Amino acid sequence: MHWTASALLLLSAALLGGGVEASSSPASSIVWTNTQRFLFDVDGNQIDAYGSKINLFQGSYYLYGNSFSTTGSAFGIKSYSSPDLKHWKYEGFLYDPTTPSPCDAIGGCGRPHIVFNSESKTYVLWANAGSAGYIVGTSTSPSGPFTFLNQTAAIDPQFDGLQPADFAVETFNGKGYIVFSVLNFRSPNAGSIWPPIFQTLHISELTPDYTNTTLTSYRVTSPAMDLIDQETESPDFFVTENGTFYVFASNTCGYCNGSIALMYRANSLNATWDRQILSGYSCNGQLEGILPLQSPQNKAIDYIWHSTSVPGGPRTGFSGHIFQPLQFASDGSVHDLNCASSAAFNVSFVSGSDSLPSGVASSAVDGSPMFADYEAVCDSDQFTLYQTWQASQSGSIKSVSVNVASSVQTVPLTMTLFKFNSYQHLTAPEYKWTTYGSASYNASALTFVFDTVVASNSSNVTVSKGDLLGYSFAGADFAPKDWGRTRCVA
Fold it and tell me: What is the pLDDT of residues 339-373, one digit of tens each?
């Protein structure tokens, strides 16, 4: 079956005159759960950044990741900023992805990481360019634009002939480090079915300008060097005040619905690493990065596990994000991840100094909550879908928006804004609502993630406080199908 545009009933934002702007008071706490996985910016668009990392730069937390909205696959790197990890402002692409770059055609500049060089006052971007290796760009701003260097970064020559893969870069005490994996497609131990490749982790120091490695590396593995150690990717790491190195990673998975959560710990780069398995499936996600947050009470650092979540979605663009604080034991080990659906994590932290951004969604009078247990649905060709709400104040409607993603639709998806008398009337035979406006969208007018589209621009419509309002989705797009293999087509 060919499905129409996937509809996510999220931001039922009736924008009335006199909307309230977001507060400029910085927040100092946030509650994360294992079920609230979608993130949105202050304009209501889905955060479109995967394989992402969050850094604190210039008074704001910056979230960087690969964009999937344009093509459905990795295409360029987007950035978002927020002082409180809740109100995210879209900062744009780090470079123009429509112009030739060293990696867009062969990997989308995968899993970007940025570090700041205090000596040169330069932000240094590292990205995975697939078989070409790691590319490096520089900028004077954390949101770019970044200019790529003319050559790829060099790694330990012992890996010549192998493919550099997932990685992370960080700085500690004025020194830069990279932890990276390498893919071995020619191992004689590869299986006919699984594993087809082997992937091992290594760590190197960076040159003083953070644009290259020192060509010397140390393997990150347990003494077992078993299949788990040889199938590691998507790493991130940090060093504690007492000099302990922690490397977190997952097994080879690639934006999947779950992967083994791993932790490696050592007192130096060339020491023996202790390994722990923190979860068998990482709460239905794969590690993206570790987010350090400073506690406002005792200035201690809380380390937050941040992973990509694809909860049954048919493509990476439907992904969400999972956050939870790592819990350390007195011996330095880490407790297992808490993957319970009822788990909630209240974290206090030192917020950024920038004022809270405001946008179309944050200033809307009526709207769905920013944090909720949203799920992707792909059935707008089988059913007419409805979203209803009650006007909280009187005024003129400026616009109504909703989050919709493109699929394989061949007919327009039509959204109709209406007013109705009561829920009993709405479902009663022969009842006719009052139509306020409508809008139609072809697949080409939508993105591959849940961005907002205007369901109705009805500037001449006035409503009274308490009015019942709604909009409908209709867009049948049927084709012959195999009933035994119905699925949502990406």
Answer: 999 999 999 999 999 999 999 898 888 988 888 88
414 burial type by CB count under 10 A (0-12 exposed, 13-18 middle, 19+ buried): middle
User: What is the b/e burial string over 183-200, where b = at least 16 CB atoms within 10 angstroms of the residue's CB?
Assistant: bbeeeeeeeeeeeebbbb
DSSP state, residue 96: -
444 phi, psi to nearest 5 deg: -65, -20
Listed range (98-107, 345-354, 397-406) with the worst mean pLDDT: 98-107
Q: Which residues of the chain are in CATH 2.60.120 domains?
A: 1-19+367-490
Sorted by sequence, the CB contacts under 8 Å of residue 294 that are 6+ apart come out as: 300, 301, 302, 349, 350
Mean of pLDDT values over 128-155: 93
pTM: 0.90
| Terminal-residue alpha carbon distance, the chain | 12
| Positions of CATH 2.115.10.20 in the chain | 25-348
CATH of domain 25-348: 2.115.10.20
Tell me phi and psi for residue 443, to 5 degrees.
-60, -35
Cα distances from 310 to residues 7, 135, 286, 317, 343, in angstroms, run 16, 27, 9, 9, 18
Q: Find out if CATH 2.60.120 is the number for domain 1-19+367-490.
A: yes
Q: Which two structure tokens, joined as six digits, stand for 166?
A: 């997932």
Cβ atoms of residues 461 and 434 within 8 Å = no
